[in-house]
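Hi P.,

Sorry for the delay on this. The queue was packed all week, but I finally got your sequence through. Input first:
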Amino acid sequence: MGLFNTGIFVGEFRHSLDDKGRLTIPSAWRLKGGSEENQFLALPSVEDGASAYVVVYPPKMIAQLEERISQISMGDVEGQRMLGELMSMAHSFNCDKQGRMSLNGKLIQHSQIGKNAVLLGRMSTFSIHSEALYDACQAEGPSDPAARAEVFKRFGL
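Then the structure:
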């Protein structure tokens, strides 16, 4: 049984945080199974400042992420330190019956999300951006077509 209506996260959606700080997941991305099998993991982006956002891993991606993280040796002091920094800001959550989620204060502060947010599909994950910062970035115009073509080529697109 698939957990997602579409199996992938695509598109751009704009939603407001409610009075309790909850954000509605787009209906196209809503989960089918019970809440215990619908655990998400929200992590801060590598980017900081005006480029910061939150990346959200669905259940099917959490197992892959866990496998990769388990490869970081205890002797890899730098890797363990960075993992600690990353996971100290992480937030694990389940959506409620209305498809709402909440983020912890560290992630909201990192991404500078105010009352409004933009959710962007990234195929196997999705990201959550401050609407104000996202709109400012979009106002700069699209990426360079040659650079975009080079990146797409790396992925066989």
